[in-house]
Specification:
7 strands, alpha+beta, seven-stranded antiparallel β-sheet
Length: 304
């Protein structure tokens, strides 16, 4: 009995530092939501939303280190750790660029079969600091395709490391890339993932791995089209339109936006679907190019 009590105590001591930040965050947000007025909350949520931006010009940078507990016996980052840190980067991306989704009652699901594809270039050594640079590659009527690049920096590229914290906010041009075709039995070369997919890497970055995954948004068990999620998040739309959408979130305890996600968007005539217009033009051209490249270059099946 004494041994069991001691073990439980040691487990509690180990888990406490991990659990504390989550507990503090929950308590903080609960108190803030109670004290905030609707107008204060509206102002805060509008300030952090990507109103008018292109989905292809934003990115998330998740910094971490290849500590001994995530490395294998070869003294470099274990293959399983790439997926673990990718999950962290994906969650950070949602918090930074889709900050209203979970508050609206939605959630993110990761694709099942062929959900994530990895192209390994070189290993990440033990104790090396590295970062995951996550951005959007394309989307179809169900899935959003995300590209993550695992990079390190050489010792003489500290300026590049510092600049990597900021996104330049401009859409890079993308060439008519020659697509590399592979069969399901072949392993693609690292260069099979075109460099223009996602936001460009900063100067001095050393690429170790490229990962592409597909995600979908849901409310309950109902899938929400990516264009609807991106439009209501603020991408490509005007401030006036976003203010109207924000009013849905504060009407009848948010039931308006929930109903819109759950199928209300289908009732909007096709010629009045503002979210599709907002993501047209150059954004649509980039989306189509990325969607065409994914199945032909790396073999990820695209729904259509």
């Amino acid at each position: 009995m004494a041994l069991s009590t001691s073990s439980s105590y040691q487990c509690a001591r180990v888990s406490t530092p991990v659990a504390q930040p989550a507990i503090y965050a929950r308590v903080y947000h609960a108190i803030r939501n109670r004290l905030e007025t609707d107008q204060q909350r509206l102002t805060r949520l509008t300030r952090i939303s990507p109103v008018g931006k292109s989905p292809f010009t934003v990115q998330t940078v998740f910094k971490t280190r290849a500590t001994p507990d995530v490395c294998d016996f070869n003294m470099h980052l274990s293959n399983s750790s790439y997926a673990m840190t990718y999950d962290m980067a994906r969650f950070k991306y949602v918090v930074e660029h889709l900050p209203l989704l979970y508050g609206d009652g939605g959630w993110i699901a990761v694709g099942g079969r062929a959900g994530t594809y990895y192209s390994f270039v070189r290993e990440i050594p033990l104790n090396a600091a590295y970062e995951i640079r996550l951005s959007m590659a394309s989307w179809d009527h169900k899935w959003v395709y995300m590209v993550a690049r695992y990079v390190t920096y050489t010792s003489n590229s500290k300026k590049a490391l510092k600049s990597s914290e900021e996104c330049n906010g401009t859409t890079s041009s993308f060439p008519d890339t020659t697509l590399l075709v592979r069969s399901s039995s072949q392993s693609p070369a690292p260069e099979a993932v075109p460099s223009w997919i996602g936001t460009p890497l900063p100067e001095g970055a050393v690429l170790h791995c490229t990962a592409i995954s597909r995600l979908c948004s849901k409310i309950g068990r109902i899938t929400i089209p990516p264009s609807v999620i991106l439009g209501t998040a603020g991408f490509g739309i005007s401030q006036e339109r976003f203010d109207e959408i924000q009013s849905w979130r504060f009407t009848n305890k948010g039931k308006c936006i929930k109903n819109f996600y759950a199928g209300g968007w289908k009732e909007v005539p096709e010629h009045e679907r503002w979210w599709e217009d907002a993501l047209g033009g150059d954004i649509e051209a980039r989306r189509v190019q990325g969607l065409r490249c994914l199945p032909e270059s790396i073999g990820i099946p695209v729904v259509g």
